[in-house]
Amino acid sequence: MKDFIAGLPKCELHLHIEGTLEPELKFELAARNGIELPYADVAEMRAAYTFDSLSSFLTIYYEGMKVLRTEPDFYDLAMAYLRKAAEQNVRYAEIFFDPQAHTSRGVPFDVVIRGLRRALMDAHAQLGVRAQLIMCFLRDFQAEYAMATLLESLPYKEWIAGVGLDSDERGNPPRKFAAVYERARQEGYLLTMHCDVDQDDAAEHIRQAIEEIGVDRIDHGVNILEDQRLVEVVLARGMGLTCCPISNGYVTDSMKAEGIRKLMDLGVRVTVNSDDPAYFDGYVQENLVALHDALQLTREELAQLERNAFEITWLPRHLKDAYL
Ligand code: ADE
Ligand code: ZN
Question: Closest Cα to atom 10, ligand 1: which residue?
Fold first, then answer.
């Protein structure tokens, strides 16, 4: 089945580009930028990747990305991911980036987006992988900073498919960003948002995301199963969920495979994605294999997961149809 999964044309919809920063590249960029890392080598760095919750992961994630400083750094980061994606038969990816994680430490917005955009263009031309960017706001920063970031993005609107919301969910409900999302919608951005697995008030956060914000998609979102009404709304609207099994296993008590199974059986457009593969040790191929090992998925079910993903992409209909 591993070979079958390897051969499936894939679609990645939940991937933080900063979460693809592998230790080897981290060392390379640190050397390039004259930054000293607190680890002797790659093995020591990997050994420090010990997290058991979203917040303990985020501490290491933000620390790690400090080696990213220049446009070529962002280019190299995205190119490395897109090469890996091409190897795994990923045909299309929607890629999150966290501009505030960089502007907050003095790296200009345009440095980040120009490097990423150039990699996306080159990867399409050289590797045949198509990709778009989704700009995420950090929910543990103030809404005013998110709004300023949104305004700063407007000259680059053609390079950004939509907006998302990530980082530490505790005490940072969707509602906090209602005005930012309203403006983003007016500007023509599509809308998604993390509703991380098993966070405090998880189902209430999903309700706010759907009913108050009107998101087009939900990142993670497995906790809709706690509220039948939410399941019905998601089904009625044909909304997609971007699930990340291996990531779930790191930041909660399990991969949530049974929940994903239930959602599939209900006909929800569930998809399988990799979140932060350099930290969770699994790209989309490994995530599909892990879910298959847990649920004994059939070939048809695996193919359906990828059809779900292509169906809920933020591509125009004719491009979607070319993948389906
Ligand atoms: N930022 C990067 N990965 C994340 C995750 N899994 N949840 C929330 N914010 C994130
Ligand atoms: Zn995520």
Answer: 167
Which residues make up the environment of ion ligand 2, defined by Cβ < 5 Å?
A: 275
Q: Among 52-56, 64-68, 87-91, 253-257, name the one with the lowest average pLDDT.
A: 52-56
Please return the burial class of 176, using the count of CB atoms within 10 Å of its CB with bins 0-12, 13-18 and 19+.
Answer: middle
Answer whether residue 60 shows pLDDT above 90. yes
3-state class percentages of the chain: helix first, strand second, coil last, to nearest 5: 60, 15, 25
In this prediction, residues 280-299 reach a mean pLDDT of: 98
Q: Which two tokens stand for residue 28?
A: 């390379």
- Would you kindly state where each structural domain of the chain is located, as residue ranges? 2-323
Whole-number Å distance, alpha carbon 81 to ligand 1 midpoint, is 17
Candidate of 53, 167, 200 to mutate for ligand 1, largest count of ligand atoms within 8 Å of Cβ? 167
Query: Which CATH architecture best describes the domain 2-323?
Result: Alpha-Beta Barrel (3.20)
Residue 286: phi and psi, rounded to 5, are: -65, -35
